[in-house]
What does this fold into?
Amino acid sequence: MLTNAQLKGLVIRATDGELGTVEQLYFDDETWAIRYLTVETGGWLGGRRVLISPISVVHTDWPAKRVNVALTKEQVKHSPDINTHLPVSRQHEAAYFGYYGYPFYWGGPYLWGPAFYPAGLANPTTASAELREDSIWRESTDSHLRSTEAVTGYHIEAADGELGHVDGFFIDDETWAIRYMEVATRNWLPGKKVLVSPAWIEGVSWTNSKVYVGLSREAIKDAPEYIESTPITREYENRLYFHYGRPPYWLDEAEHKPSYSLSGV
It folds into this structure.
């Protein structure tokens, strides 16, 4: 299911009670997959912010605005401290994954390393503490994580001029991949919004807050309009990809998806 990334404020519920509410999302700027939810824990942890990985998510109840995770409050309480106001390093990530016993998502050929879905990493590994410590020590410092909140508002540059700005994101809540950026074109096409796939991005200037896409303004002008009150259907996505002459993401993923099921290899 595709949903816009208005996850901020959603309640995170552990197996034994509420953990807090979602504050923002961190995505990997190489794969455009959501790697963490930043959670404001409120009073029970003295306002401490913690990271929750989609690996732990067992169900997202959109009508109830709640995300259920396969964690206990005690587990989260003793999880490694990570300052979410600073860049999250790969060493921090490795320590986090080691604590929960998850295999690293950067250690394989698929979107989630050895698995195509985050749920495929949910079974804790049995690696020794010494091996995990060695893995943490050897990790590089660059984790390629960006905040969706920080990127919202970035200017979009088409091949022949400015197009608009990032107004939101659409996420596949099965793979936790960002499928589209929602682009507001009000300075150019008043009232019209369009969707741009990360696959069409040719570069991002993080210092200048700009996203460069390999599409012309004319092509974008004539693209199927995104209407906020209308759900994104596969029929709409087909029209979008057909308009741009680009192969849809689900065909490529079907070709590279591993043959095992989520219940086991």
